[in-house]
Amino acid sequence: xxxxxxxxxxxxxxxxxxxxxxxxxxxxxxxxxxxxxxxxxxxxxxxxxxxxxxxxxxxxxxxxxxxxxxxxxxxxxxxxxxxxxxxxxxxxxxxxxxxxxxxxxxxxxxxxxxxxxxxxxxxxxxxxxxxxxxxxxxxxxxxxxxxxxxxxxxxxxxxxxxxxxxxxxxxxxxxxxxxxxxxxxxxxxxxxxxxxxxxxxxxxxxxxxxxxxxxxxxxxxxxxxxxxxxxxxxxxxxxxxxxxxxxx
Length: 248
Fold this sequence. Notes:
The chain is an alpha/beta fold.
């Protein structure tokens, strides 16, 4: 959907920008905050869904990020409300995020019903290059153990900020092997800075399938980023938004 070039209201911005982009929401919610919200057991309509780029995966436009929560009750309520995409990372809460989320999914027996994503690479970003491959392997095995699964739907190279990060040969080769082995379904990249450069570099190839980017109303006039998003989307890259409310 074209994004308006003229200044627009917050409501108009959200309406025009959200379509086609799955959003990692509730990422900053604490268990106490979640418990304080009014309980509504009925919803008037099923959640709006979009196809995540060329992956072909159809997801509700709202997802849940597990960076700051280790509350099974929050995940259970999200699932009840129709959320099917759960996102975490090996560094979130020192690994506890993955542990709690993995236990929740296993206990409900819903592994094949949800899209599960995690991230690796941030905690080992400063290791010697000669050790980088083995450290990627170690961290990913830890992810699978904590999540109690033998595969993840999306695995992200965590927090890349430039073209060099996108083209990291060691990471790319390892992610490709994992995909061939069926241990990940889709390789992706998460980015917090240099986002336009990252998206445009991803769009030059056909390997990286999903991008997680920070995007919210404060970026309504960031034409460089908006154009990069259009470019990536036109190449079939699925775009998932974090920090949609400015945090989390």
